[in-house]
Write a structure and sequence with these properties.
Blueprint lengths: L41 E4 L5 E7 L5 E6 L3 E5 L9 E7 L3 E2 L3 H7 L12 E13 L2 E10 L2 E17 L2 E13 L19 E11 L5
Antiparallel strand pairs: 1-4, 1-11, 2-3, 2-11, 3-6, 4-5, 5-7, 7-8, 8-9, 9-10, 10-11
């Protein structure tokens, strides 16, 4: 599944994954309730206000941030919070933005994301457990660099507002992955310790309700 929904040597930043902390999971004392399929209709992601930030350690020193702009996809979530959000999100690698055109092009190349062969990264949620009000742990499938793996994602509903077509709902999701598990190994052993293996991904989403006919 290719579609679904952060010094030139740091070019290996693998977009969706995490800093030096383990993959998020619900605390032991959290109220865990299996999520049921959302009853509400689908909301459409607003690409202007939906993006993925990624972070990776560079040369065992600083944490470098980048982003992928204009995420597309959909979210289903009942406004009464009776079920977990169901998210389908796609990040097109042509939209990588590190603030450096040279670095962007390197990241799209064969040492890293290999955009020509794998043009997008996607996440599709498959279920969830409640942590607290408007806070869920989602399970789902992440597809990156031609590899699909199950992941756990921390997802918070950040608010419900009003847009030009109806209600607008915001979400913030976080996940940590090891890029080596997706076949992206440049900078781990060769050249040694140029880049970290763990990548933190912070995904900000806004989804719009369709206007009633």
């Amino acid at each position: 599944m290719r579609t679904l929904i952060v010094a030139s040597s740091l070019i290996a930043i693998p977009l969706l994954a995490a800093a030096s902390r383990p993959m998020w999971s619900a605390p032991a004392n959290a109220a865990v309730v299996l999520a049921q399929p959302a009853a509400e209709g689908e909301l459409t992601l607003d690409p202007v206000h939906s993006m993925a930030l990624f972070r990776i350690q560079h040369l065992e020193a600083g944490q470098f941030w980048g982003r992928i702009n204009a995420l597309s996809g959909s979210v289903a979530w009942p406004m009464d919070d009776s079920a977990a959000p169901t998210i389908k999100a796609v990040a097109e690698l042509k939209n990588i933005d590190t603030g450096s055109e040279k670095l962007d092009n390197n990241l799209k190349g064969p040492n890293f994301f290999n955009e020509r062969e794998f043009p997008s990264i996607s996440f599709t949620s498959t279920g969830g457990t409640r942590v607290t009000e408007r806070h869920w742990t989602l399970t789902g499938d992440l597809s990156l660099h031609g590899v699909t793996k199950p992941v756990m994602v921390d997802c918070v509903v950040t608010g419900v507002g009003k847009g030009p077509t109806g209600k607008k709902v915001g979400f913030e999701c976080q996940v940590t992955i090891k890029r080596s598990e997706f076949g992206m190994t440049w900078g781990i052993e060769k050249p040694p310790k140029a880049l970290g293996d763990e990548v933190r991904l912070v995904i900000g989403l806004e989804a719009d309700e369709s206007k009633a006919e």
